[in-house]
Design a protein that fits this description.
By secondary structure, the protein is an alpha/beta fold. The protein contains eleven helices and 16 strands. The strands form four sheets. It has a six-stranded mixed beta sheet, sandwiched between helices. The chain has a six-stranded mixed beta sheet with strand order 8-11-13-14-15-12, sandwiched between helices. The chain has a two-stranded antiparallel sheet with strand order 2-4.
Length: 323
């Protein structure tokens, strides 16, 4: 989740893999590669992010129409369910035909430069633009990002709460997979698969167990090892580990709900000052493992699903973020 607006939520991939290429990459003739390099030089794209030849193709490549992809994503992610702090779906229209997609956590300028360098037709992210409390003017950082996207005819697709909540591809589901958590499940509608038990109406606050781990200290060590970074945490190392409640991103505001649900530990991405006192005074451990770090996996799973459905080339690029 993002930290824009009220989204400090009162409201496949290996964890350490920087980027993942999926089937469908185009073979490029050398003249096209030279033309692409000349274009990058003229437009000031840094050499460090240009990548290899990106223009042209030896053989026709699988593609999907922009509007078809938008409709499929809207249906699969159930956009109509959510009241969000930003527009979900196509935020910037680019090329009508999409053959190559770059995915990432946030639609930063660095990610757009990488996408342009790879000849992408679309960028698919969790954190897009046009947040509820942002300055509505197209100036400064947003102007530079938008100019880059338009110059390279890049589509920008962004999915915020719908990607947090998806029961298979979502950030919470994928973080559970990476950390080895066992989500609590309940029977869905008759004839349908089980669904995760959540503690809020939007399906953002998940609950479950951490099989094979006996203490809070064991849990923190596993989180740090699987995510490849140190966590900020408050609690007793030898405290017994029982129910785990988690919500990725900036969800420190949900800690009281986790406590009321009987959690022994609450895991999210970011921390606020009051989380320390809640942990010390209730005995419920608090773990903040990084906003970016906890939300790297949903967009990768979604990109994999797009590649499998349409056959287009999809590549995840991890733009490092220590927060």
């Amino acid at each position: 989740m993002s930290d824009h607006g009220p989204k400090r939520k009162p409201r496949p991939s290996e964890p350490d893999q920087a980027r993942q290429s999926l089937p469908g990459a185009r073979a490029e003739p050398d003249p096209a590669g030279r033309a692409a390099r000349n274009r990058f030089e003229a437009e000031g794209v840094p050499e460090s992010v240009r990548g290899g030849p990106v223009a042209g193709s030896l053989q026709p490549q699988p593609s999907v129409g922009r509007d078809e992809l938008e409709r499929w994503l809207a249906d699969e992610l159930c956009l109509a369910r959510f009241r969000d702090y930003c527009p979900n779906g196509l935020q910037v229209a680019g090329a009508e035909t999409i053959r190559r997609i770059v995915t990432g956590v946030t639609a930063s300028r660095a990610l757009l430069e990488q996408a342009a360098a790879r000849g992408a037709d679309a960028v698919l992210v969790h954190h897009g633009w046009f947040w509820k409390n942002d300055d509505p003017r197209i100036v400064g950082m947003l102007h530079a990002r938008l100019k880059l996207a338009l110059r390279h005819d890049l589509n920008l697709f962004a999915y915020h709460l719908p990607l947090d909540a998806h029961p298979v591809w979502g950030n919470n589901a994928q973080l559970a997979r990476v950390l080895g958590l066992d989500p609590e499940m309940a029977q869905g509608k008759p004839g349908e698969a089980e669904v995760p038990v959540t503690l809020d109406a939007d399906g953002l606050l998940w609950t479950g167990r951490a099989p094979g781990l006996g203490t809070v200290g064991d849990f923190v060590r596993q989180v740090e090892q699987r995510l490849g970074r140190a966590a900020l945490w408050v609690g007793e190392v030898e405290a017994p580990l029982g129910k785990v409640v988690w919500c990725t991103g900036g969800a420190q505001g949900y800690m009281n709900q986790a406590i009321e649900a009987g959690a022994s530990v609450y895991l999210t991405g970011e921390a606020s000052e009051y989380n320390t006192h809640l942990a010390r005074e209730t005995g419920v451990a608090f773990v903040a493992a990084g906003h970016h770090a906890t939300e790297r996996y949903g967009v990768q799973a979604l990109g994999q699903a797009v590649a499998e459905r349409f056959g287009v080339a999809v590549e995840f690029i991890d733009i490092d973020n220590p927060v």
